[in-house]
């Protein structure tokens, strides 16, 4: 198994994640727009055992968004790190925190029905108005 390293903006939190995502996608839901402060969030899904916080664990704070999802971030710099899918036992890692380049590429857009009106989708990737 190959691993990728990642870190938050201030560098206090570092992670190691397997370079084998169950999928990588762009999420255009309104909550990801708020959470990321941007047009969409790019996330890769892994099993919980495939993500390890290698330093700064005590600085990781989580916002309990719903029964299904905790959104976790660095409490020092505020960088969005990953979400924890509480019922599935999986994590969605924000790809922007990676310091290495993953082997896979994003291959899907989800929740395009709520996409930011000021953002234009111009690629040929598969698109779903909500979930696949
Ligand atoms: Zn930080
Ligand atoms: Zn989303």
TrEMBL record:
Molecular function GO terms recorded: carbon-sulfur lyase activity; metal ion binding
SUPFAM superfamilies associated with the record: Mss4-like
UniProt KW Lyase keyword: yes
Family annotation (Gene3D superfamilies): glutathione-dependent formaldehyde- activating enzyme (gfa) (3.90.1590.10)
Top-level taxonomic group: Bacteria
Family: Belongs to the Gfa family.
Residues annotated as signal peptide: none
PANTHER family, alphabetized: CENP-V_GFA DOMAIN-CONTAINING PROTEIN-RELATED, GFA DOMAIN-CONTAINING PROTEIN
PROSITE patterns per the UniProt record, alphabetical: CENP_V_GFA
Location of the CENP-V/GFA domain: 4-119
Pfam family membership, one: GFA
Keyword set, alphabetical order: Lyase, Metal-binding, Zinc
InterPro entries in alphabetical order: CENP-V/GFA, Mss4-like_sf
Keyword presence, Cell membrane: no
Protein name per the record: CENP-V/GFA domain-containing protein
């Amino acid at each position: 198994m190959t691993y990728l390293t990642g870190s938050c903006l201030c560098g206090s939190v570092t992670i190691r994640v397997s370079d084998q995502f169950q999928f990588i996608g762009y999420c255009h839901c309104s909550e990801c727009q708020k959470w990321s402060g941007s047009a969409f969030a790019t996330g890769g899904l892994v099993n919980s055992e495939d993500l390890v916080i290698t330093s700064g664990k005590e600085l990781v704070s989580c916002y309990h968004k719903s029964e299904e999802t905790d959104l976790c971030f660095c409490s020092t710099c505020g960088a969005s790190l990953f979400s924890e899918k509480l019922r599935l036992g999986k994590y969605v890692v924000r790809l922007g925190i990676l310091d290495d380049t993953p082997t896979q590429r994003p291959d899907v857009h989800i929740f395009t029905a709520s996409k930011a009106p000021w953002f234009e989708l111009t690629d040929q990737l598969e698109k779903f108005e909500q979930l696949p």
